[in-house]
Amino acid sequence: MWLQKSLQSKLLLGMIVCAIIPLTISIIISYRTTSNSVQSQIVDINQQAMDSSTYYVKRYLDNLDQITLSFYFDPVLMGYLRSPSSADYAERMYISNQVYSISKERPEFRAVRFASSQTGEVYSDSAFLRLGEGDPPGSISTPEDDQAGWGETYGYEVVTMNGERLLAFHKPIIDYPRTHLLGILTIYIGPDELGQLVRPGEVSTTEGEQVFLLIRRDHELLYASQEGQESLLGLEMDPAPWNGDKGYVQGKWAGQEGVLVYVTDDYKGMPLTLVKYIPSAVMHEAANEALRKSLAIPLMMTLLVLLCSSLLSYMFMTPIKRLVRSIAQVQAGNFDMQPIPARQDELGVLEHRFQSMVRGLDDLMNREYRHRLELTTAHLKMLQAQINPHFLYNSLQSIGTLALRQGAPEVNEKIAELGYILRYSMDLKTESVPLHKEIEHIENYMSLQLGRFRDRLSYELSCPPEALSILVPKMILQPLVENSIVHGMEKGTGRGAIHMVMELKAEALIISVMDNGKGIEASVLEGLQREYGGRQPTSGKESGIGLINVLERLRLRYGSQFTWEIRSIPYEETIIQLHIPLEERKDMQPAASAQEVHSV
Protein backbone atom coordinates (compact mmCIF):
# COMPACT_ATOMS: atom_id res chain seq x y z
CA MET A 1 0.00 0.00 0.00
CA TRP A 2 2.81 2.41 0.90
CA LEU A 3 4.41 1.72 -2.45
CA GLN A 4 1.26 2.76 -4.31
CA LYS A 5 1.08 6.09 -2.49
CA SER A 6 4.73 7.11 -2.68
CA LEU A 7 6.35 8.02 -5.98
CA GLN A 8 9.68 8.43 -4.18
CA SER A 9 9.47 4.85 -2.88
CA LYS A 10 8.73 3.56 -6.38
CA LEU A 11 11.63 5.52 -7.85
CA LEU A 12 14.03 4.41 -5.11
CA LEU A 13 12.92 0.76 -5.34
CA GLY A 14 13.32 0.79 -9.12
CA MET A 15 16.85 2.18 -8.86
CA ILE A 16 17.78 -0.39 -6.20
CA VAL A 17 16.43 -3.26 -8.32
CA CYS A 18 18.32 -1.95 -11.35
CA ALA A 19 21.49 -1.93 -9.24
CA ILE A 20 21.01 -5.27 -7.44
CA ILE A 21 20.09 -7.47 -10.43
CA PRO A 22 23.20 -6.62 -12.53
CA LEU A 23 25.36 -6.96 -9.41
CA THR A 24 23.92 -10.42 -8.66
CA ILE A 25 24.52 -11.56 -12.24
CA SER A 26 28.01 -10.06 -12.10
CA ILE A 27 28.75 -11.91 -8.84
CA ILE A 28 27.60 -15.25 -10.31
CA ILE A 29 29.66 -14.79 -13.47
CA SER A 30 32.61 -13.50 -11.44
CA TYR A 31 32.42 -16.47 -9.07
CA ARG A 32 32.43 -18.99 -11.89
CA THR A 33 35.20 -17.20 -13.74
CA THR A 34 37.20 -16.75 -10.55
CA SER A 35 36.67 -20.39 -9.56
CA ASN A 36 37.97 -21.63 -12.92
CA SER A 37 40.83 -19.15 -12.85
CA VAL A 38 41.80 -20.07 -9.28
CA GLN A 39 41.65 -23.77 -10.12
CA SER A 40 43.93 -23.21 -13.11
CA GLN A 41 46.33 -21.17 -10.96
CA ILE A 42 46.38 -23.81 -8.23
CA VAL A 43 47.02 -26.53 -10.80
CA ASP A 44 49.80 -24.52 -12.46
CA ILE A 45 51.49 -23.70 -9.14
CA ASN A 46 51.34 -27.32 -8.01
CA GLN A 47 52.63 -28.61 -11.35
CA GLN A 48 55.58 -26.24 -11.19
CA ALA A 49 56.38 -27.41 -7.65
CA MET A 50 55.94 -31.03 -8.70
CA ASP A 51 58.29 -30.49 -11.67
CA SER A 52 60.91 -29.30 -9.20
CA SER A 53 60.28 -32.29 -6.95
CA THR A 54 60.64 -34.69 -9.88
CA TYR A 55 63.90 -33.02 -10.85
CA TYR A 56 65.32 -33.46 -7.34
CA VAL A 57 64.20 -37.10 -7.25
CA LYS A 58 66.12 -37.74 -10.47
CA ARG A 59 69.21 -36.04 -9.03
CA TYR A 60 68.85 -38.19 -5.93
CA LEU A 61 68.76 -41.33 -8.08
CA ASP A 62 71.88 -40.09 -9.88
CA ASN A 63 73.56 -39.69 -6.50
CA LEU A 64 72.66 -43.27 -5.60
CA ASP A 65 74.26 -44.44 -8.82
CA GLN A 66 77.41 -42.46 -8.00
CA ILE A 67 77.66 -44.16 -4.59
CA THR A 68 77.75 -47.62 -6.21
CA LEU A 69 80.76 -46.60 -8.29
CA SER A 70 82.97 -46.83 -5.19
CA PHE A 71 83.46 -50.56 -5.97
CA TYR A 72 85.33 -49.67 -9.17
CA PHE A 73 87.82 -47.42 -7.37
CA ASP A 74 89.02 -50.23 -5.06
CA PRO A 75 91.47 -52.51 -7.03
CA VAL A 76 91.71 -55.01 -4.17
CA LEU A 77 87.94 -55.36 -4.03
CA MET A 78 87.69 -55.74 -7.79
CA GLY A 79 90.38 -58.50 -7.63
CA TYR A 80 88.38 -60.41 -5.02
CA LEU A 81 85.19 -60.04 -7.08
CA ARG A 82 86.91 -61.38 -10.24
CA SER A 83 88.10 -64.54 -8.45
CA PRO A 84 85.98 -67.55 -9.52
CA SER A 85 86.83 -69.48 -6.35
CA SER A 86 85.14 -69.07 -3.02
CA ALA A 87 86.62 -66.34 -0.91
CA ASP A 88 88.47 -67.11 2.27
CA TYR A 89 87.64 -65.48 5.57
CA ALA A 90 89.85 -62.43 5.00
CA GLU A 91 88.38 -61.82 1.56
CA ARG A 92 84.82 -62.19 2.84
CA MET A 93 85.54 -59.72 5.66
CA TYR A 94 87.01 -57.24 3.20
CA ILE A 95 84.00 -57.48 0.89
CA SER A 96 81.64 -57.25 3.88
CA ASN A 97 83.43 -54.13 5.12
CA GLN A 98 82.99 -52.47 1.72
CA VAL A 99 79.30 -53.32 1.74
CA TYR A 100 79.10 -51.98 5.28
CA SER A 101 80.78 -48.71 4.29
CA ILE A 102 78.21 -48.16 1.55
CA SER A 103 75.36 -48.74 4.03
CA LYS A 104 76.72 -45.86 6.11
CA GLU A 105 76.88 -43.42 3.21
CA ARG A 106 73.37 -42.09 3.91
CA PRO A 107 71.10 -42.39 6.94
CA GLU A 108 68.10 -43.52 4.88
CA PHE A 109 69.91 -46.70 3.71
CA ARG A 110 68.18 -49.57 5.46
CA ALA A 111 70.29 -52.40 3.99
CA VAL A 112 73.00 -53.08 1.38
CA ARG A 113 73.41 -56.47 -0.30
CA PHE A 114 75.95 -57.78 -2.80
CA ALA A 115 75.37 -61.07 -4.69
CA SER A 116 78.47 -62.45 -6.45
CA SER A 117 77.95 -64.03 -9.85
CA GLN A 118 81.35 -65.80 -9.57
CA THR A 119 80.83 -67.72 -6.36
CA GLY A 120 77.10 -67.26 -5.67
CA GLU A 121 77.92 -65.83 -2.26
CA VAL A 122 75.80 -63.05 -0.75
CA TYR A 123 77.27 -60.27 1.40
CA SER A 124 75.03 -58.06 3.50
CA ASP A 125 75.26 -55.59 6.36
CA SER A 126 71.90 -54.61 7.78
CA ALA A 127 69.97 -54.34 10.96
CA PHE A 128 67.43 -56.57 9.30
CA LEU A 129 69.77 -59.26 7.83
CA ARG A 130 72.64 -61.41 8.86
CA LEU A 131 74.72 -63.56 6.61
CA GLY A 132 73.08 -66.91 6.15
CA GLU A 133 69.58 -65.84 7.36
CA GLY A 134 68.08 -65.87 3.89
CA ASP A 135 67.41 -63.35 1.17
CA PRO A 136 65.44 -60.18 1.78
CA PRO A 137 62.39 -59.21 -0.31
CA GLY A 138 63.37 -58.10 -3.78
CA SER A 139 66.60 -60.13 -3.77
CA ILE A 140 67.91 -61.30 -7.12
CA SER A 141 69.37 -64.81 -7.22
CA THR A 142 72.75 -65.23 -8.91
CA PRO A 143 72.57 -67.18 -12.18
CA GLU A 144 74.82 -70.09 -12.92
CA ASP A 145 76.42 -68.50 -16.00
CA ASP A 146 76.59 -65.29 -17.98
CA GLN A 147 73.66 -66.21 -20.19
CA ALA A 148 71.01 -65.56 -17.57
CA GLY A 149 70.45 -61.93 -18.64
CA TRP A 150 71.83 -59.95 -15.73
CA GLY A 151 71.28 -56.68 -17.59
CA GLU A 152 67.51 -57.10 -17.34
CA THR A 153 67.68 -57.22 -13.56
CA TYR A 154 69.15 -53.70 -13.35
CA GLY A 155 66.55 -51.21 -12.12
CA TYR A 156 64.31 -50.16 -9.27
CA GLU A 157 61.43 -51.78 -7.47
CA VAL A 158 59.33 -51.22 -4.36
CA VAL A 159 59.67 -53.76 -1.55
CA THR A 160 58.36 -54.00 2.00
CA MET A 161 60.63 -54.89 4.89
CA ASN A 162 59.36 -55.05 8.46
CA GLY A 163 56.23 -53.09 7.47
CA GLU A 164 58.18 -50.27 5.81
CA ARG A 165 57.95 -49.44 2.13
CA LEU A 166 61.48 -49.27 0.64
CA LEU A 167 63.04 -48.56 -2.73
CA ALA A 168 65.27 -51.43 -3.87
CA PHE A 169 68.02 -50.17 -6.20
CA HIS A 170 69.72 -53.01 -8.14
CA LYS A 171 73.09 -52.02 -9.59
CA PRO A 172 74.99 -54.58 -11.77
CA ILE A 173 78.77 -54.55 -11.19
CA ILE A 174 80.40 -55.03 -14.60
CA ASP A 175 84.06 -55.96 -15.08
CA TYR A 176 84.89 -53.08 -17.46
CA PRO A 177 86.08 -52.87 -20.17
CA ARG A 178 84.76 -56.36 -20.53
CA THR A 179 81.05 -56.99 -20.29
CA HIS A 180 81.47 -59.76 -17.75
CA LEU A 181 79.00 -59.40 -14.85
CA LEU A 182 80.67 -59.68 -11.44
CA GLY A 183 77.52 -59.39 -9.35
CA ILE A 184 74.60 -57.20 -8.29
CA LEU A 185 74.76 -54.54 -5.60
CA THR A 186 71.32 -53.83 -4.06
CA ILE A 187 70.64 -50.84 -1.81
CA TYR A 188 67.40 -50.68 0.18
CA ILE A 189 66.46 -47.01 0.65
CA GLY A 190 63.93 -45.76 3.21
CA PRO A 191 61.38 -42.99 2.43
CA ASP A 192 63.04 -40.30 4.59
CA GLU A 193 64.98 -38.45 1.92
CA LEU A 194 62.41 -39.13 -0.78
CA GLY A 195 59.76 -37.58 1.44
CA GLN A 196 61.86 -34.43 1.84
CA LEU A 197 62.29 -34.22 -1.92
CA VAL A 198 58.61 -34.81 -2.70
CA ARG A 199 57.08 -32.59 0.01
CA PRO A 200 57.77 -29.31 -1.84
CA GLY A 201 55.19 -30.60 -4.29
CA GLU A 202 52.57 -30.25 -1.55
CA VAL A 203 52.72 -26.43 -1.90
CA SER A 204 50.42 -26.01 1.12
CA THR A 205 49.69 -27.92 4.29
CA THR A 206 45.93 -27.78 3.89
CA GLU A 207 44.24 -30.72 5.53
CA GLY A 208 43.15 -33.37 3.05
CA GLU A 209 45.85 -32.86 0.40
CA GLN A 210 47.84 -36.01 -0.51
CA VAL A 211 51.04 -36.54 -2.53
CA PHE A 212 52.06 -39.88 -4.12
CA LEU A 213 55.29 -40.90 -5.86
CA LEU A 214 54.88 -43.80 -8.31
CA ILE A 215 57.54 -45.69 -10.25
CA ARG A 216 57.63 -48.19 -13.10
CA ARG A 217 54.99 -48.68 -15.69
CA ASP A 218 52.70 -50.57 -13.34
CA HIS A 219 52.61 -47.49 -11.05
CA GLU A 220 54.10 -48.99 -7.92
CA LEU A 221 53.55 -46.69 -4.94
CA LEU A 222 56.93 -45.64 -3.58
CA TYR A 223 55.95 -42.74 -1.32
CA ALA A 224 52.71 -41.37 0.18
CA SER A 225 52.51 -38.18 2.21
CA GLN A 226 50.53 -39.95 4.94
CA GLU A 227 51.48 -43.24 6.52
CA GLY A 228 49.30 -46.27 6.15
CA GLN A 229 48.51 -45.67 2.45
CA GLU A 230 49.87 -48.88 1.03
CA SER A 231 48.21 -48.58 -2.35
CA LEU A 232 46.12 -46.34 -4.58
CA LEU A 233 42.90 -48.17 -3.77
CA GLY A 234 41.48 -44.98 -2.22
CA LEU A 235 41.76 -43.15 -5.56
CA GLU A 236 38.60 -43.51 -7.63
CA MET A 237 40.05 -42.93 -11.09
CA ASP A 238 41.81 -44.64 -13.94
CA PRO A 239 45.60 -43.99 -13.85
CA ALA A 240 45.83 -44.44 -17.61
CA PRO A 241 45.69 -40.65 -18.27
CA TRP A 242 48.94 -40.24 -16.28
CA ASN A 243 50.88 -41.39 -19.32
CA GLY A 244 50.96 -37.81 -20.54
CA ASP A 245 53.54 -35.25 -19.44
CA LYS A 246 51.37 -33.38 -16.97
CA GLY A 247 47.76 -32.43 -16.35
CA TYR A 248 44.87 -32.91 -13.96
CA VAL A 249 41.68 -34.93 -13.80
CA GLN A 250 38.62 -34.95 -11.60
CA GLY A 251 38.53 -37.80 -9.15
CA LYS A 252 37.91 -38.91 -5.60
CA TRP A 253 40.07 -39.88 -2.65
CA ALA A 254 38.42 -41.81 0.16
CA GLY A 255 35.03 -40.83 -1.26
CA GLN A 256 35.77 -37.08 -1.32
CA GLU A 257 35.58 -35.09 -4.55
CA GLY A 258 38.78 -33.43 -5.66
CA VAL A 259 41.31 -32.76 -8.39
CA LEU A 260 44.25 -35.07 -9.14
CA VAL A 261 47.24 -33.14 -10.46
CA TYR A 262 49.96 -35.29 -12.00
CA VAL A 263 53.42 -34.86 -13.51
CA THR A 264 55.12 -37.72 -15.39
CA ASP A 265 58.82 -38.14 -16.19
CA ASP A 266 61.33 -40.95 -16.62
CA TYR A 267 64.75 -41.74 -15.26
CA LYS A 268 66.93 -43.84 -17.56
CA GLY A 269 63.86 -45.48 -19.00
CA MET A 270 62.04 -45.92 -15.68
CA PRO A 271 58.73 -43.97 -15.52
CA LEU A 272 58.32 -41.58 -12.59
CA THR A 273 54.86 -40.24 -11.72
CA LEU A 274 54.13 -37.65 -9.05
CA VAL A 275 50.44 -37.30 -8.15
CA LYS A 276 48.78 -34.79 -5.85
CA TYR A 277 45.20 -34.95 -4.64
CA ILE A 278 43.60 -31.56 -3.85
CA PRO A 279 40.14 -31.65 -2.23
CA SER A 280 37.36 -29.64 -3.86
CA ALA A 281 36.89 -27.80 -0.56
CA VAL A 282 40.39 -26.36 -0.93
CA MET A 283 39.61 -25.22 -4.46
CA HIS A 284 36.33 -23.64 -3.38
CA GLU A 285 37.90 -21.96 -0.37
CA ALA A 286 40.59 -20.41 -2.54
CA ALA A 287 37.96 -19.30 -5.05
CA ASN A 288 35.80 -17.88 -2.26
CA GLU A 289 38.75 -16.00 -0.79
CA ALA A 290 39.61 -14.52 -4.18
CA LEU A 291 35.96 -13.68 -4.73
CA ARG A 292 35.71 -11.93 -1.36
CA LYS A 293 38.70 -9.79 -2.22
CA SER A 294 37.41 -9.03 -5.71
CA LEU A 295 33.91 -8.15 -4.44
CA ALA A 296 35.11 -5.21 -2.36
CA ILE A 297 34.96 -2.76 -5.26
CA PRO A 298 31.56 -3.97 -6.64
CA LEU A 299 30.05 -3.74 -3.17
CA MET A 300 31.42 -0.23 -2.76
CA MET A 301 29.99 0.64 -6.16
CA THR A 302 26.63 -0.80 -5.09
CA LEU A 303 26.62 1.31 -1.95
CA LEU A 304 27.52 4.34 -4.05
CA VAL A 305 24.67 3.53 -6.47
CA LEU A 306 22.24 3.22 -3.55
CA LEU A 307 23.45 6.53 -2.12
CA CYS A 308 23.16 8.24 -5.51
CA SER A 309 19.71 6.68 -6.00
CA SER A 310 18.52 8.06 -2.66
CA LEU A 311 20.00 11.47 -3.46
CA LEU A 312 18.46 11.56 -6.94
CA SER A 313 15.04 10.48 -5.67
CA TYR A 314 15.24 13.19 -3.01
CA MET A 315 16.28 15.81 -5.59
CA PHE A 316 13.43 14.81 -7.90
CA MET A 317 10.74 14.49 -5.25
CA THR A 318 11.53 17.59 -3.17
CA PRO A 319 10.28 20.11 -5.79
CA ILE A 320 7.25 17.92 -6.50
CA LYS A 321 6.33 17.82 -2.81
CA ARG A 322 6.94 21.56 -2.57
CA LEU A 323 4.63 22.08 -5.54
CA VAL A 324 1.92 19.94 -3.90
CA ARG A 325 2.18 22.04 -0.73
CA SER A 326 1.92 25.22 -2.79
CA ILE A 327 -1.22 23.92 -4.50
CA ALA A 328 -2.77 23.12 -1.11
CA GLN A 329 -1.78 26.60 0.09
CA VAL A 330 -3.48 28.25 -2.90
CA GLN A 331 -6.57 26.10 -2.34
CA ALA A 332 -6.68 27.46 1.21
CA GLY A 333 -6.68 31.02 -0.17
CA ASN A 334 -3.08 31.96 0.59
CA PHE A 335 -1.43 33.38 -2.53
CA ASP A 336 1.85 34.39 -0.86
CA MET A 337 4.41 32.03 -2.42
CA GLN A 338 7.72 31.30 -0.70
CA PRO A 339 10.91 31.83 -2.73
CA ILE A 340 12.16 28.68 -4.44
CA PRO A 341 15.72 27.67 -5.36
CA ALA A 342 16.81 28.53 -8.88
CA ARG A 343 16.66 25.39 -11.04
CA GLN A 344 17.06 25.15 -14.80
CA ASP A 345 15.55 21.70 -15.31
CA GLU A 346 11.94 20.78 -16.10
CA LEU A 347 10.89 20.65 -12.44
CA GLY A 348 12.33 24.10 -11.85
CA VAL A 349 10.48 25.46 -14.90
CA LEU A 350 7.26 23.83 -13.62
CA GLU A 351 7.61 25.47 -10.20
CA HIS A 352 8.37 28.89 -11.69
CA ARG A 353 5.44 28.61 -14.11
CA PHE A 354 3.12 27.65 -11.26
CA GLN A 355 4.23 30.60 -9.15
CA SER A 356 3.80 32.90 -12.15
CA MET A 357 0.28 31.54 -12.58
CA VAL A 358 -0.49 32.12 -8.88
CA ARG A 359 0.85 35.67 -9.08
CA GLY A 360 -1.32 36.23 -12.15
CA LEU A 361 -4.38 34.98 -10.27
CA ASP A 362 -3.46 37.23 -7.36
CA ASP A 363 -3.20 40.23 -9.68
CA LEU A 364 -6.57 39.39 -11.23
CA MET A 365 -8.14 39.22 -7.78
CA ASN A 366 -6.53 42.53 -6.82
CA ARG A 367 -7.85 44.15 -9.98
CA GLU A 368 -11.29 42.80 -9.16
CA TYR A 369 -10.95 44.22 -5.67
CA ARG A 370 -9.86 47.61 -7.02
CA HIS A 371 -12.79 47.51 -9.39
CA ARG A 372 -15.19 47.00 -6.49
CA LEU A 373 -13.45 49.79 -4.55
CA GLU A 374 -13.79 52.12 -7.50
CA LEU A 375 -17.49 51.27 -7.67
CA THR A 376 -17.80 52.15 -3.98
CA THR A 377 -15.89 55.39 -4.52
CA ALA A 378 -18.06 56.24 -7.51
CA HIS A 379 -21.15 55.64 -5.42
CA LEU A 380 -19.76 57.97 -2.74
CA LYS A 381 -18.96 60.59 -5.32
CA MET A 382 -22.46 60.28 -6.68
CA LEU A 383 -23.87 60.99 -3.21
CA GLN A 384 -21.49 63.90 -2.76
CA ALA A 385 -22.41 65.31 -6.13
CA GLN A 386 -26.05 65.53 -5.13
CA ILE A 387 -25.16 68.76 -3.33
CA ASN A 388 -23.55 71.42 -5.50
CA PRO A 389 -20.17 72.26 -3.95
CA HIS A 390 -20.27 75.79 -5.32
CA PHE A 391 -23.66 76.36 -3.75
CA LEU A 392 -22.43 75.24 -0.33
CA TYR A 393 -19.25 77.26 -0.56
CA ASN A 394 -21.09 80.43 -1.69
CA SER A 395 -23.71 79.99 1.04
CA LEU A 396 -21.05 79.65 3.75
CA GLN A 397 -19.26 82.71 2.37
CA SER A 398 -22.49 84.73 2.59
CA ILE A 399 -23.06 83.57 6.20
CA GLY A 400 -19.50 84.55 7.07
CA THR A 401 -19.98 88.04 5.61
CA LEU A 402 -23.17 88.44 7.64
CA ALA A 403 -21.37 87.38 10.83
CA LEU A 404 -18.62 89.87 10.17
CA ARG A 405 -21.21 92.67 9.74
CA GLN A 406 -22.77 91.68 13.05
CA GLY A 407 -19.38 92.03 14.78
CA ALA A 408 -18.52 88.31 15.12
CA PRO A 409 -15.11 87.87 13.39
CA GLU A 410 -14.45 84.52 15.09
CA VAL A 411 -17.60 83.07 13.61
CA ASN A 412 -16.54 84.33 10.21
CA GLU A 413 -13.13 82.64 10.63
CA LYS A 414 -14.62 79.28 11.55
CA ILE A 415 -17.09 79.43 8.68
CA ALA A 416 -14.21 80.17 6.30
CA GLU A 417 -12.26 77.16 7.61
CA LEU A 418 -15.31 74.96 7.20
CA GLY A 419 -15.67 76.21 3.66
CA TYR A 420 -12.07 75.32 2.87
CA ILE A 421 -12.62 71.84 4.34
CA LEU A 422 -15.75 71.27 2.27
CA ARG A 423 -14.15 72.52 -0.91
CA TYR A 424 -11.07 70.30 -0.34
CA SER A 425 -13.11 67.24 0.54
CA MET A 426 -15.54 67.58 -2.34
CA ASP A 427 -12.89 68.11 -5.02
CA LEU A 428 -13.53 64.83 -6.85
CA LYS A 429 -11.12 65.44 -9.72
CA THR A 430 -7.93 65.43 -7.64
CA GLU A 431 -6.57 62.12 -6.24
CA SER A 432 -2.99 63.10 -5.29
CA VAL A 433 -1.92 66.37 -3.74
CA PRO A 434 1.33 67.84 -2.41
CA LEU A 435 1.88 67.16 1.25
CA HIS A 436 1.45 70.84 2.15
CA LYS A 437 -2.16 70.67 0.88
CA GLU A 438 -2.87 67.84 3.28
CA ILE A 439 -1.24 69.85 6.05
CA GLU A 440 -3.42 72.93 5.25
CA HIS A 441 -6.49 70.73 5.32
CA ILE A 442 -5.59 69.14 8.65
CA GLU A 443 -4.84 72.58 10.15
CA ASN A 444 -8.31 73.82 9.17
CA TYR A 445 -9.79 70.63 10.59
CA MET A 446 -7.86 70.94 13.85
CA SER A 447 -8.84 74.63 14.14
CA LEU A 448 -12.49 73.61 14.19
CA GLN A 449 -11.75 70.83 16.71
CA LEU A 450 -9.86 73.27 18.96
CA GLY A 451 -12.88 75.56 18.89
CA ARG A 452 -14.92 72.61 20.06
CA PHE A 453 -12.66 71.19 22.78
CA ARG A 454 -10.91 74.43 23.82
CA ASP A 455 -8.17 73.77 26.36
CA ARG A 456 -8.95 70.04 26.58
CA LEU A 457 -7.16 69.41 23.26
CA SER A 458 -3.70 70.36 22.07
CA TYR A 459 -1.79 69.34 18.98
CA GLU A 460 1.62 69.78 17.39
CA LEU A 461 2.65 69.23 13.76
CA SER A 462 6.21 69.13 12.44
CA CYS A 463 7.38 68.62 8.86
CA PRO A 464 10.70 69.34 7.12
CA PRO A 465 10.38 71.91 4.29
CA GLU A 466 11.86 69.52 1.68
CA ALA A 467 8.95 67.12 2.25
CA LEU A 468 6.17 69.64 1.57
CA SER A 469 6.22 69.12 -2.19
CA ILE A 470 5.95 65.31 -2.07
CA LEU A 471 2.77 64.00 -3.71
CA VAL A 472 0.61 61.85 -1.46
CA PRO A 473 -2.91 60.42 -1.82
CA LYS A 474 -5.61 62.87 -0.80
CA MET A 475 -7.37 62.59 2.58
CA ILE A 476 -4.92 60.32 4.42
CA LEU A 477 -4.18 62.52 7.47
CA GLN A 478 -7.70 63.49 8.57
CA PRO A 479 -8.84 59.86 9.27
CA LEU A 480 -5.75 59.30 11.44
CA VAL A 481 -6.31 62.48 13.48
CA GLU A 482 -10.04 61.86 13.66
CA ASN A 483 -9.34 58.32 14.94
CA SER A 484 -7.23 59.80 17.77
CA ILE A 485 -9.95 62.30 18.73
CA VAL A 486 -12.93 59.97 18.54
CA HIS A 487 -11.40 56.78 19.98
CA GLY A 488 -8.64 58.29 22.09
CA MET A 489 -10.22 61.37 23.68
CA GLU A 490 -14.00 61.11 23.50
CA LYS A 491 -14.01 57.46 24.65
CA GLY A 492 -11.32 58.15 27.20
CA THR A 493 -10.87 60.98 29.67
CA GLY A 494 -12.12 63.71 27.30
CA ARG A 495 -8.69 65.36 27.24
CA GLY A 496 -5.62 64.69 25.12
CA ALA A 497 -2.71 65.81 23.00
CA ILE A 498 -1.97 64.91 19.38
CA HIS A 499 1.48 65.08 17.83
CA MET A 500 1.94 64.68 14.04
CA VAL A 501 5.49 64.18 12.71
CA MET A 502 6.59 63.90 9.06
CA GLU A 503 10.10 62.51 8.47
CA LEU A 504 11.81 62.31 5.10
CA LYS A 505 14.15 59.32 4.68
CA ALA A 506 16.17 58.19 1.66
CA GLU A 507 13.43 56.02 0.21
CA ALA A 508 10.27 56.77 2.18
CA LEU A 509 8.16 59.46 3.82
CA ILE A 510 7.31 58.46 7.38
CA ILE A 511 4.11 59.94 8.85
CA SER A 512 3.53 59.39 12.56
CA VAL A 513 0.39 60.37 14.49
CA MET A 514 0.76 60.09 18.27
CA ASP A 515 -1.76 60.67 21.07
CA ASN A 516 -2.04 59.99 24.78
CA GLY A 517 -5.62 58.81 24.76
CA LYS A 518 -7.36 55.58 25.63
CA GLY A 519 -5.29 53.55 23.16
CA ILE A 520 -6.11 50.47 21.13
CA GLU A 521 -6.60 47.06 22.71
CA ALA A 522 -4.53 44.09 21.48
CA SER A 523 -7.63 42.24 20.25
CA VAL A 524 -8.65 45.28 18.21
CA LEU A 525 -5.16 45.45 16.70
CA GLU A 526 -5.32 41.75 15.75
CA GLY A 527 -8.72 42.28 14.16
CA LEU A 528 -7.38 45.28 12.25
CA GLN A 529 -4.44 43.22 10.94
CA ARG A 530 -6.75 40.37 9.92
CA GLU A 531 -9.07 42.80 8.19
CA TYR A 532 -6.15 44.37 6.36
CA GLY A 533 -4.73 40.96 5.38
CA GLY A 534 -8.17 39.86 4.21
CA ARG A 535 -8.35 42.85 1.89
CA GLN A 536 -11.96 43.68 2.77
CA PRO A 537 -12.51 47.47 2.69
CA THR A 538 -14.75 48.95 5.36
CA SER A 539 -15.89 52.46 6.05
CA GLY A 540 -15.20 54.22 9.29
CA LYS A 541 -18.11 55.01 11.60
CA GLU A 542 -17.07 58.60 12.27
CA SER A 543 -14.65 59.72 9.56
CA GLY A 544 -16.62 58.40 6.59
CA ILE A 545 -13.51 56.73 5.18
CA GLY A 546 -11.98 54.96 8.15
CA LEU A 547 -8.48 53.90 9.12
CA ILE A 548 -8.60 50.55 7.31
CA ASN A 549 -9.67 52.23 4.06
CA VAL A 550 -6.70 54.60 4.32
CA LEU A 551 -4.38 51.64 4.72
CA GLU A 552 -5.95 49.78 1.79
CA ARG A 553 -5.77 52.86 -0.45
CA LEU A 554 -2.07 53.22 0.29
CA ARG A 555 -1.47 49.48 -0.27
CA LEU A 556 -3.24 49.60 -3.64
CA ARG A 557 -1.28 52.70 -4.58
CA TYR A 558 2.21 51.58 -3.51
CA GLY A 559 1.94 47.78 -3.30
CA SER A 560 4.18 45.77 -1.00
CA GLN A 561 6.56 48.72 -0.58
CA PHE A 562 4.02 50.39 1.69
CA THR A 563 4.18 49.35 5.35
CA TRP A 564 2.46 50.49 8.50
CA GLU A 565 2.76 49.99 12.23
CA ILE A 566 0.59 50.64 15.29
CA ARG A 567 1.91 50.64 18.86
CA SER A 568 -0.30 51.44 21.83
CA ILE A 569 0.22 51.95 25.56
CA PRO A 570 -3.14 53.12 27.01
CA TYR A 571 -3.13 56.71 28.29
CA GLU A 572 0.58 57.01 27.59
CA GLU A 573 1.31 56.75 23.90
CA THR A 574 -0.49 55.40 20.85
CA ILE A 575 1.43 55.69 17.57
CA ILE A 576 0.12 55.11 14.06
CA GLN A 577 3.05 55.15 11.64
CA LEU A 578 2.88 55.04 7.83
CA HIS A 579 5.92 54.29 5.62
CA ILE A 580 5.09 55.76 2.19
CA PRO A 581 7.63 55.04 -0.56
CA LEU A 582 8.81 58.07 -2.51
CA GLU A 583 7.51 58.41 -6.08
CA GLU A 584 7.94 61.94 -7.34
CA ARG A 585 7.97 65.50 -6.08
CA LYS A 586 5.94 68.31 -7.46
CA ASP A 587 8.08 71.35 -8.13
CA MET A 588 5.95 73.98 -6.50
CA GLN A 589 6.14 76.45 -3.63
CA PRO A 590 4.19 75.49 -0.52
CA ALA A 591 1.43 77.71 0.70
CA ALA A 592 2.26 80.37 3.22
CA SER A 593 0.21 78.64 5.88
CA ALA A 594 2.31 75.47 5.68
CA GLN A 595 4.86 75.66 8.46
CA GLU A 596 7.71 73.44 9.37
CA VAL A 597 6.50 73.30 13.00
CA HIS A 598 3.06 74.33 14.18
CA SER A 599 1.90 74.01 17.75
CA VAL A 600 -1.39 74.87 19.41
From TrEMBL:
GO terms for molecular function: phosphorelay sensor kinase activity. SMART domains: HAMP. CDD domains: HAMP. GO terms for cellular component: plasma membrane. Pfam families: HAMP (PF00672), HATPase_c (PF02518), His_kinase (PF06580). Keywords: Cell membrane, Kinase, Membrane, Phosphoprotein, Transferase, Transmembrane, Transmembrane helix. InterPro entries: Bact_2-comp_sensor_kinase, HAMP_dom, HATPase_C_sf, HATPase_dom, Sig_transdc_His_kin_internal. This is HAMP domain-containing protein.
